[in-house]
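P.,

For your records, the input lines for the assembly:
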Amino acid sequence: MKPAAVFLISHAALALFGFFVAFHPALVRLSALARAAAAFGAGAIALTVVAALYSLAGIPWSLAALAAPLLALTIFFMARTGRGRPAVAPPLAAVPRFSPSPAVALLAGIALFLAFLHLTLSLATSSSTSADFLFFWGVKAARFAAVRGFDVALLGWHYFGHAAPDYPPLVPVVQAWGVIAAGEMPWRRAPLAAVIWLAAALPLVLAFLRRRVSDDSALAATGFWGTAMAISLARSLSGGNAEAPLLFFEAVAGVSLLAERESEVSSRFLPALFLAGAVLTKVEGLAAAGLLVAGALLRDLLERRRGAIRGAIPLIVAPALALAGWFAFQRLSGLPAGYVGHGPLFALSYDSLGSLGKAFLRHLDAGTLWLSWIFPLLFVFASFRRLRAGVPGLLFAAGLLLFFAHDYMHDFEDPAVRIGWTLPRVSQPALSLVILAAAVVSFPGRERTADRVRSSIPAARPAGAA
Amino acid sequence: MVRVSSDARIGAWLLASFLLLLFPFLSWLKMPPGERAIAPDTPMDRVSGALSEEWLFLWHAKGAVPRKAAFSVLASERPREMNLFMMAIGLYPYARPVPASYFGGDVPSQDREGPDYLLVFRCEVPPPPGFRLIQTNPGGCVFKRNSEVS
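Structure tokens returned:
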């Protein structure tokens, strides 16, 4: 088999490593596809943790050595839960069987098919490769695979400073895993992995939206979300870098929080886990996690939900542990611990605000002349009475854009060029959450079947129970 | 609140999806038909001609640089030398990169010492004494230190 095929299959195979997650009570009643997608994300996180522990222990990476503990974990949980269904059924179990109308399913399916075809062709013809893949993401992966571990000497080398050695490790580890399996880095085809990440998000986005809105509404919104994100990933040259994985983790964490209903007893296991995944994927994953936690907490307080503070705890603890784990790894490996900033927090340039504003607006076009933003925002404005339900996504989007504007204001030369290179891709999670928030606020809520069913469950867990 | 029926909203979301698709559709239409699905020579074929050319040079020179060898990349323009250096670290994962310059600046002489191989982009920079030409490819030349000749 060709190295490129093996590299991509090894990505998809991460679902096997994370399959222990699919047996968690919060997910056990999801569709098989959604559970596999959740397992895929969890597999990437688990692989990163095991790879880091091996490097610290001096154990060389190999397919067998990396796979063994993860597969063992999966078998353990399969055996444990295979004996019977969980005692407490999660609310998701109460969502009726998926039965969209054929016309909606057909149209959403065609839109998604065409959008994914566009993304796949763009990546396969080298139209959407990120230069950063060749400058550092893929470079780290190739080097890590060559030394069968984190190349700490390289990360600490003065002349590797361009490669952002402080960046979190998930993407280089996952790509290195693919390189070890394939025997080499398939430089031309590796960017296609972005398709896998986006495709994996779809069943989860659909599954969580269905908790909140009707099947047809969820499908139409998922179709729009997938189409907008596929076009944006292609347009923003996100092949081979960390954008698609980050989008996956943040979109799924965000939609699972957005889909929580007022009276719902909900597990926050998956959003907590995937916020940790976001933190392990990119530096701004930390800002994103903070914003999503703040948004969920604010929404819960505004809606006077029971256990709002308590429900936020797992969302804070999981990403904090991920961050602490990465910094501890840096320190134990003799690397400088922490992230390198773009300058002192308030050393900002106000001279180029005009240029910044213009460039900012111009490069938010998402490859669709801003339609990807305009359409969901119209629905948000039209549904302002239900706005509270969308707070986690809207606060996230606004906060993330402000975060980047603040970052660009550290440039004392005209930031327009850097904005042009980076904003189209780094703004994607914000666009993603605006679309998902719009879906939640604009459609009427699903009939409270879940509430009726849940009332028959004797010992439901409080909000935030992991 | 604007009152729109649920079916109309679903229709609007679906219609909007197809509106979005017009943009990539138009971009593919602009491309000459024969070029729409060409297998790429490099990862950057349609992103950056300059990076594509640099990557291809390194790719062709790959066979000339053995594992564990120390190598440097030279170019007449410093920004291109930096690009080549960054990409070469990944393209030659078993070899040891030695910077000839860094971000356009000079590198202290002790940090520049020791390359066994010199990869010269477009053959535009003459190698220092003690190196001999071992490969030319469409993107440049590869030189090897004479003392390493067996």
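Two observations worth noting. The beta strands of chain B are 70-74, 96-97, 101-102, 105-106, 117-121, 131-137, 140-145. The helical segments of chain B are 6-30, 49-61, 78-91, 109-112.

Regards
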